[in-house]
């Protein structure tokens, strides 16, 4: 379980956060829709929360 969290799920969560952040920056630089920027910001915050939870679970599982 610990290796699954730390070697698979954590990088996926971090890549998802980075991807949404990049999409938001691209949308902002191109002068895209403000509604899309808001949606991307919401998704980024949610994905950051998930990434933090996965990180804490991995740390907990590795410590056991």
UniProtKB/TrEMBL annotation:
Q: Which residues form a coiled coil?
A: none
Q: Name one Pfam family in it.
A: HIG_1_N
* Residue intervals passing through the bilayer: 6-25, 45-63
Limits of the HIG1 domain: 1-64
Keywords (alphabetical) are: Membrane, Transmembrane, Transmembrane helix
Taxonomically, the superkingdom here is Bacteria
Protein's recorded name? Hypoxia induced protein conserved region
From which organism does this entry originate?
A: Rhodopseudomonas pseudopalustris
